[in-house]
Amino acid sequence: MKAIQILAHGGPEVLTVADIDPPLASPGRVLVRVAAAGVNFIDTYQRSGQYPTALPFVLGKEGAGEVIEVGDGVAGVAVGDRVAWAFAPHSYAEIASLAVEDLFAVPDDVTLETAAAAMLQGLTAHYLVTSVHQVSPGETVLVHAAAGGVGLLLTQMAVARGARVLGTVSTDHKAALAESAGAEIIRYDAFDDMTTELPDAVRALTRGEGVHAVFDGVGRTTFDGSLASLRPRGMLALFGAASGPVPPFDLQRLNAGGSLRVTRPSLAHFLATAEERAWRAGELFGAISDGTLDVRIGAAHPLAKAREAHEALEGRQTTGKVLLTI
Ligand SMILES: NC(=O)c1ccc[n+]([C@@H]2O[C@H](COP(=O)([O-])OP(=O)(O)OC[C@H]3O[C@@H](n4cnc5c(N)ncnc54)[C@H](OP(=O)(O)O)[C@@H]3O)[C@@H](O)[C@H]2O)c1
Predict the structure, then answer these.
(1) First CA to last CA distance, the chain
(2) Cα(219)–Cα(208) distance, rounded to whole angstroms?
(3) Which of 23, 135, 198, 304 could form a disulfide with 161 if both were Cys (CB 3.0 to 4.6 A apart)?
(4) Coil, helix or strand for 80?
(5) Do 223 and 214 contact (CB within 8 A), yes or no?
(6) Which residue from 41, 45, 87 has its CB within 8 A of the most atoms of ligand 1, so it is best to mutate?
């Protein structure tokens, strides 16, 4: 089968199409013909070696497709079922082997492409607004990269929970998308000094008070400005590092800022039990089905164009979800 397999860590150029043996059915696992694989920042961290992996390695954490074979001991999943997954390895491939507990059933009214597009970023947005900080009516929150994959979903979910959302973006096109998702726009590309100009812009929009929470997946370039944009007892959820990792910082700054809180959460820890997984996926698919959550697929590339997909994602060229269709 064809798969995107890396033989060495490096830039997008290490992403090449390989002809490899397909996985075999094994106990407790199913084989899925992959219809679409999601492209996520974690794939770029694994490709570059920032998150080391064994080599050779087939990239991809997320996807959706149709079950073509079930292993021994598998119950509740049958050949022909439409399934999706958010956090299981080796999805940039024609066929993937998945543990049954990693699968979500895709509702009939949701396409496999939309399911692949919604899983990782949608479940992330869900745990951020429900469990990391329970976004509540009357609150104001700041969402960075609000036209990105997580950003557009997070913005819509925070608005649906009654919050006012300030969203940072870097282009007019991204501003229009984030605005239609419900955000008030801050153009952080215009700032010479993010550390002072971002909190100034936030305070100008909040009568000097700052925001209740910041959802920051950008990292290095925004972290200091994010911290300074919080009101006392505010929460900074640093959930990614699109601009690079945040260096160590002095915890005393949390006291000086007003008993602030910082967390560095990860999706895997918020899919801890079967009940938690079912709750999050149920709410996510429910919102897609009833039309209250719009999953924007910004680009869909064939598998062989994985390199271009990574270049665009890392180069700030994408909006919404980037997919590999297979
Ligand atoms: N912790 C978790 O559980 C979890 C799960 C999923 C994703 N994440 C993280 O969430 C973040 C967003 O992921 P995503 O897949 O939805 O990506 P994305 O937001 O669609 O793309 C990243 C965006 O970040 C902004 N950005 C600002 N500075 C950047 C820079 N120097 N290089 C690249 N991008 C920059 C860009 O938007 P502008 O041009 O508008 O600035 C860019 O489009 C990533 O950090 C990812 O690792 C974390």
Answers:
(1) 11
(2) 24
(3) 135
(4) coil
(5) no
(6) 41
Indicate the angle between helix axes 41-48 and 306-314, nearest 10 degrees. Answer: 100
Contact indicator for 144, 183 with CB cutoff of 8 Å: no
Q: 95-99 and 140-143: which strand pairing?
A: unpaired
The residue to which tokens 């993937």 are assigned: 96
Q: Quick one: tokens of 233?
A: 């007892």
Residue 9 corresponds to which tokens in the numbers above? 């860590």
What CA–CA distance (Å, rounded) separates 278 from 6? 33
What the chain holds in terms of domains, given with CATH numbers, is 2-119+274-325 (3.90.180.10), 137-264 (3.40.50.720)
Which residues have C-beta atoms less than 6 Å from ligand 1?
Answer: 40-42, 120-121, 124, 145, 147-151, 169-170, 174, 217-218, 221, 239-243, 265-267, 313-314, 316, 318
* Ligand 1 centroid – CA 220 distance (Å): 11
Region of 125 please: left (phi>0), alpha (psi -120 to 50) or beta: alpha
φ/ψ (deg, to 5) at 287: -70, -35
Residue type for 271, please? L
What element of type H or E holds 212? strand 211-216
80 CA distance to ligand 1 centroid (A)? 34
Closest CA to 16 of 58, 49, 52, 61: 58
Per-residue DSSP letter, 92:
S
Q: Does an H or E element contain 226, and which? A: helix 223-228
Token pair belonging to 267: 């999706």
Q: Tell me which H or E stretch contains 117.
A: helix 112-127
What is the pairing mode between strands 29-39 and 95-99? antiparallel
Ligand 1 mean position to 81 CA, how many Å? 32
Question: Which pLDDT score, from 0 to 100, does residue 53 have?
Answer: 95
pLDDT in tens, 33-69: 999 999 999 999 999 999 999 999 999 999 999 999 9
pLDDT digits (tens, 9 = 90+) for 201-247: 999 999 999 999 999 999 999 999 999 999 999 999 999 999 999 99
